[in-house]
């Protein structure tokens, strides 16, 4: 929801990629010039956003999520 920088593997090794705020699962992001080589240079690498939802939450985490949910009800 807030965006982040994540390490993404490429042919040249890992790079930090900015994930914009509000990116949803399945959104495609492009790393320009980090794909496969071809006659005139390099192609682009595409990264698909995957949302990892934790299976278990601590009591404090659950409390915070519930507080956030109650704030969203008024929106």
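^ structure tokens above, recovered residues below v
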């Amino acid at each position: 929801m807030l965006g982040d920088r994540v390490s993404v593997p490429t042919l040249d090794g890992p790079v930090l990629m900015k994930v914009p705020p509000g990116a949803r699962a399945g959104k495609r992001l492009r790393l320009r010039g980090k794909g496969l080589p071809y006659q005139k240079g390099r192609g682009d690498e595409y990264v698909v956003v995957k949302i990892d939802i934790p299976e278990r939450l601590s009591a404090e985490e659950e409390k915070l999520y519930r507080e956030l949910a109650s704030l969203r009800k008024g929106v």
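The two ends are 16 Å apart (CA to CA).
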